[in-house]
Amino acid sequence: MQCRLCDSGRLTSVLDLGATPACESFLDAALLETPETTYPLHLRLCEQCLLLQIPALITPEDTFTEYAYFSSFSDSWVRHAEDFIETAVDRLGLGADSFVVEVASNDGYLLRHAVARGVPCLGIEPSVNVGAAARAAGVPTETTFLHEDSAARVRAEHGPADLVVANNVYAHIPDLRGFTRALRTLLSDDGWLSIEVHHALNLVRHGQFDTIYHEHFQYYTVYSAQRALAVGGLTVVDVELLDTHGGSLRLWARPDAVAEPGPRVAEVLDLERAAGLHTPAGYADLAPRAQSVRQELLRFLLDCRARGKRVVGYGAPGKGNTLLNYCGIRPDLLEYTVDRNPYKHGRYTPGTRIPIHPPERIDADRPDVVLVLPWNLETEITAQLRHVTEWGGELVYPLPVLHRAELETKVNR
Ligand SMILES: [Zn+2]
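# zinc ion complex -> structure
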């Protein structure tokens, strides 16, 4: 086994989550009678360049050609995208003469805000069904994976981009070096690249082990991201810390020749260094933390079961499937879950085979406990589900430590 960034053979085990199915391979009823393929999910650290990574056992081509995730189903995510475009338009002075490219543009949740502001743009999205939804919403979108060939073709056809946006995709690419060179190809010589990716500082510090799944091939610190971007002749010039996905990085990078790193790059590197993440020893706490989340959650669910409480889930995100599979939670402990994405209704979670219903099912059933799987959206979901207290229900989040949502019950006295 070799590091995909630096080719070193010195990969050390950080967390072994066993073997699980692909996290977005939800099963329809007919598939329940067929075998299910599982893949080892084993996080390792390169001792040479400190890139956290899992082996590429499932290719993006397997995952993303027909994809179940539509970004527009999350209210907070759509708002986040609008804020980003507003900020980028101001910061970079984008207008009718500019050109913005988004890689993995999903259903156009972000670029529709560029279209609304009259900024020419192009989405690059591999999933046929998701890209079709973007075009229907008025966002020009090419159905292709980004690699060095498609990047050269887009540049020849549309010209270089003033801004390339790569949100929640830089972890999804096993050909990290080729993808990074492709990003550079899309970009003009004085352009800007903006990348959002989960911050491994939070993965380790808060034990967010369920952000590890087969679609995420690598997990970045600013330290390792700098080394990855350098492959494409790109330098990180600014870093923002975001709350999304339990704590993400927004990296701003520019071609080396025009790059002038600002103070925030060093500040975030200092945070990482203080947490020990610039040496292999700093990653040792992740495995015991994951084990402790598993044991706490199982103890809680078994206790609910013993007391005859009815427990259902909320959400069927990819991370939920890492959690459910690693913990071994099946319908005897979690009767069903619900999701706002109609694609998942009537299907079952991979591996654990928990049925997925529309959200209204919770209101009809009035369960005692709702276990929220997308814990990174706690504020949004707690607001949406406040009414479960009307029938005495509880909202419970599994991470960073098992806890009940703070729900103020308004009682008229
Ligand atoms: Zn390496």
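# post-check
The pocket of zinc ion is lined by residues 3, 5-6, 8, 46, 48-49, 51 (CB under 6 Å).
Residues 11-53 form one domain.
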